[in-house]
Amino acid sequence: MKNEIEKREPQTNMQVFSSQENFEQSMRMAKCLSVSSLVPAIYQDKEKGLSNCIIALEMANRIKMSPLMVMQNLYIVHGNVGWSSKFLIAVWNTCGRYSTIKYEFEGDPKNDTWGCRATSTDKDTGETLKSALVTIKMAKEENWYQKSGSKWKTLPELMLQYRSAAFLVRAYAPELSMGLQTIEEVEDIRKVEDIEYQEIRKRENDVVIEIPEEKEKEPIVDTPKEEVKDDVKQPESIPEPAKQPIKPKEKAKIPDVFQTEIE
Question: pLDDT tens-digit profile of 39-81?
């Protein structure tokens, strides 16, 4: 009898993009949500509101949460999507796989070594799960602490709890966050990027005189210099000696043997 009742019960989970029938049904649900004043403004937008509602329905189905709760805790900061930390903690506590998140503080609250770990217990194995230690020193080194209007300065204890809880979820159950960061993490990271961009922009606008770096001088090696013909003066041509007139050869005096002396 129990099995028959379970079969008759409608399936509450619906994969929006698994079939045309599911998609058409999600369209009708999305139209209803987009005209409600209880959902945030991004879901009431005339051009993109309907599409945002459909995506929210898909995400709510995957983490088995109410679509309205997902819409009220999903934020967009400078084009990046993120969950609120309190929502992510609620998803962990209500998923049924783990015990409620607890927090363990370490160090002295008066210095930067003060930190927090989020802890929980796996209900199936009884294993104790702990997040990485988040300290004030880490917040300063990661530039979360220095930004203007930072909650790290005014609410350090709460920020340590939020960040350690986010680390716990990301380490042991990333499927609960669907790979998204918390809104606090998105804001911290975005602020650091803005600061770096402003510094680079300022350098571009400033007049900078670039001084070429001195190159290392190459060692001087004595090498035989090649003779450069262009630089060497060619010796002047030596004038040829004046040609002496050639005298006709004197005829050799041949004694006339046939001539007799006439007495």
Answer: 888 898 888 888 889 888 888 888 888 888 888 888 776 667 7
Q: 123-161: b or e for each residue (b if 16 or more CB lie within 10 Å)? A: eeeeeebbbebbbbebbeeeebbebeebbbeeebeebbb
Answer yes or no: are the C-beta atoms of 183 and 86 closer than 8 Å: no
Residue 157 host element (H or E)? helix 156-172
Residue with tokens 């911290």: 188
Backbone φ, ψ for residue 43 (5° rounding): -95, -10
CA distances from 126 to 90, 97, 123, 135, 159 (A): 20, 11, 5, 27, 28
Tokens found for residue 39: 């959902």
The number of beta carbons lying within 10 Å of the beta carbon of residue 181 is: 20
In degrees and rounded to multiples of 5, residue 75 shows phi and psi of -120, 155
pTM, two decimal places: 0.59
- How would you classify the pairing of strands 181-182 and 80-83? parallel
E strands, 51-101, in order: 74-77, 80-83
Closest CA to 97 of 129, 53, 132: 129
